[in-house]
Amino acid sequence: MLSRQLSASFAAMNDAPHVDSRVLVAGAGIGGLCLAQGLRRAGVGVTVFEADPSPACRGQGHRITLKSAGVQALRSCLPPELYALCLATSIRPATTMTFTDERLTPRFSKPIPALPPEEHLGVNRLTLREILLSGLGGDVRFGAAFESFDRTADGRVLARFADGSTATGDLLVGADGTGSAVRRIIAPHAELEDLGGFVYGRTTITPGLLAWLPEVLLDSFNRVTGPVGAMSVATCRRHTPAAGPGLTGIPDYLAWTVDGWPDGPPTGARPEELHRLAAEMVGGWHPAARRVVAEADVAATFAVRLRSALPFPPWQAPGVTLLGDAAHTMSPGRGEGANIALKDAALLAAEITAARPGGLAAAVARYEREMFAYAFEAVAASRDHPFAPRRR
């Protein structure tokens, strides 16, 4: 499997104590990797540093729905063959939008018009990350958690990592997620709003499952609301049976979420406990809703904490910037987080690539002005009007 191959190849390359690269990226999530692909494609030197010890050390979550902004970002940053692989390994789109009560009685339902892949693309998180890692090789260093940075005598950025390594670059990009260590240094005034959380699970699709699963839960964008709690079920079936050359094979599955706890599910709970809590929340609901949870892969159950960035003044840190959740984490109700992170990556890559000699600071400033405008508009919409998807 590609994850194991990547782990071995990256481990062999992660023994250099110092790296000198034009752009340093802290965080190998989809935003940081998309940026790296875009810069590498343009011939800009870039190195990505990731805290995880290997690409395969933990799960990557389940489905992501990419809208126009996210798809266009991938197309602009990826080599054509990798973009084509994203399309080839995509997930069938939802065909209806449905909101029901706990007995699966529809309260609202309408068809979702078919959209071209350039405007709407379902992808599996692990598959997308493996594609984004493809070809980067020694440009990604695992086991290197960002800790701090200083300025060099010539005005560059010297980054330090927990493994003792260092790196020098013209620009440091914090793409290290909601708990960003880079953001804590350059924007200590930034605050996050806690919105609770939910339990995320996965149930493998088998012929037997399709025989009893109601149509209202199949290939739909749905929200099932009970007297207490709510549930959503996303169908994740690939367009083609093959996963793609060298990629980890992933069977078709239902990705479901259950929420309704006032403070979210307990922090640190094991998968078995989270699965039990989800089953209890939907107890007494329609038998199909209960069965989706009951037949889940218990070990793949995990909790997601919902946080939303509060607006804050731009940071003043020449040579350092942020993208994705590190800058503007948002609730997932509208499915915008990954799309905005990819949009950030494509915009920043374009600005850096087009910068004239000596013009990197101005290019980054342009990126930050534009990013702050569209990203915090999306943050507010995701927080205040979830479950009302928009196309961008």
Automatic annotation (TrEMBL):
Record's keyword annotation contains Flavoprotein: yes
UniProt keywords, alphabetically: FAD, Flavoprotein, Monooxygenase, Oxidoreductase
UniProt xrefs under SUPFAM superfamilies: FAD/NAD(P)-binding domain
Record-annotated FAD-binding domain positions: 21-185, 313-371
GO molecular function, one term: monooxygenase activity
Domain of life, source organism: Bacteria
PANTHER family: FAD-BINDING DOMAIN-CONTAINING PROTEIN, MONOOXYGENASE, FAD-BINDING
The protein's name in its UniProt record: Monooxygenase
Organism: Acrocarpospora macrocephala
Source species taxonomy: Bacteria, Bacillati, Actinomycetota, Actinomycetes, Streptosporangiales
